[in-house]
Amino acid sequence: MTVFFKTLRNHWKKTTAGICLLTWGGHWLYGKHCDNLLRRAACQEAQVFGNQLIPPNAQVKKATVFLNPAACRGKARTLFEKNAAPILHLSGMDVTVVKTDYEGQAKKLLELMENTDVIIVAGGDGTLQEVITGVLRRADEASFSKIPIGFIPLGQTSSLSHTLFAESGNKVQHITDATLAIVKGETIPLDVLQIKGEKEQPVFAMTGLRWGSFRDAGVKVSKYWYLGPLKTKAAHFFSTLKEWPQTHQASISYMGPTERPPSGAEETPPRPSLYRRILRRLASYWAQPQDALSQEVSPKVWKEVQLSTIELSITTRNSQLDLTSKEDFMNICIEPDTVSKGDFITIGKYPPVLSDLLSLTSARVSLVTNALNPPSQLQHILGAHVLPCQLVIC
Fold first, then answer.
1. pLDDT tens, 316-337?
2. Residue 362, pLDDT above cutoff 70
3. Confidence class of residue 393 from pLDDT cuts 50, 70 and 90?
4. Mean pLDDT across the chain, nearest whole number?
5. C-alpha span between 295 and 275 (Å, rounded)
6. Distance CA 121, CA 132 (A)
7. Distance CA 89, CA 54 (A)
8. What subcellular locations does the record give (predicted)?
């Protein structure tokens, strides 16, 4: 024993490195063990639903999964197959996985897809935005949009994940919680933005829209990957060398907050008796005709604002969901056009975490957001009502 400790003391550098390696390996193995326990618990909970008996005249619930393998730097497929797929299969659903190969493919596939019981999005914010757009572009959108849509956050940035699920630093727990929520059929209402161009088909978004210099510089951050932690500052710095000040002219037409329509179906009142129906018919027959002008609804007044800004963003309330609110509205953020170059570089280092914000790049685009009727029901994402607004970029 004395020789053993003497050897460790004489080779203290190797001993220190070995202890560090063993500590890291033990921590890594413990994390893997905890992840396996989470998967096992989620599978056991899903199996309870799969063991339920189906009536003879009922069909197995069909689920169509749109998986983006490129999400999370190409790790989305592995994350889905290890953490989400077993739960879906054990729940008793007939699962069909559709893997997207390129951007925009989900929109085209949804235009041709037949009816299903559940649509599941396995990817990031971009994949979710494509699926929402594909669903609401269909000719039978009124009926097809009633299909619940589930969201399994597999991307690097999932802006809505903290709204839909409890925050967790464990990726496995985050995915299993989202998948179990789909199996249980839990839903929550969220807003949908409808963006219309002059010629293009409408595009739909869940979080919002950005247009301006911060957005343009943020797109080029990956171009300076070789600068490491300085890549964000470099992108904004080189952006100031091209043109300054970078101002954008726009005209916004908007209305104040509107009352939220009732989300649930109204109860049908009981049919009155025959005697009451006869009296109602006689009363309506002998009643004096009302003035048609008095029945006209006064048109809604739109307010118009001309502005000059360096960045304009329009966001929904999905990131700060309040189900008790009785009003529908959006947030419009107008950054001042007097930002200096130094402030532009400093502020650009902390961009808003809204990766699915759509962007305006053409010379003239109009944005219209309106209420979807009937609302598009999503599993944990339910397209609902949005304040009307129109934006014209000059």
1. 877 777 666 777 777 888 888 8
2. no
3. very low
4. 77
5. 29
6. 10
7. 16
8. Mitochondrion inner membrane; Mitochondrion intermembrane space
pLDDT digits (tens, 9 = 90+) for 235-273: 888 888 887 878 888 888 877 777 776 655 555 667 777
CB-CB contact of 140 with 7 (8 Å): no
- Dump the DSSP string for 282-298: HHHHHSPPPPHHHHSPP
Q: Which of 210, 209, 214 is nearest to 240 (CA)?
A: 214
Q: How far apart are CA 113 and CA 102, in angstroms?
A: 17
Burial (CB count within 10 angstroms: exposed 0-12, middle 13-18, buried 19+), residue 7: exposed
The answer to whether residue 11 sits within a structural domain is no
Closest to 212 (Cα-Cα) out of 168, 247, 260: 247
Domains contained in the chain, number: 2
* Residue 50 tokens, joined: 């799969």
245-to-248, 308, 311, 313 alpha-carbon distances in Å: 10, 11, 12, 19
DSSP class of residue 103? T
- CA-CA-CA-CA torsion sign (176, 178, 182, 187): positive
Q: Indicate the burial class of 294 (C-beta count within 10 angstroms; 0-12, 13-18, 19 or more).
A: exposed
Average pLDDT score over residue span 359-369 = 34
Tell me, what's the pLDDT at 261?
66
Residue that finishes a domain, picked among 131, 164, 186: 186
Does residue 63 lie within any of the structural domains? yes
Do 215 and 140 reside in the same domain of the chain? Answer: no
Query: Which residue type occupies 296?
Result: E
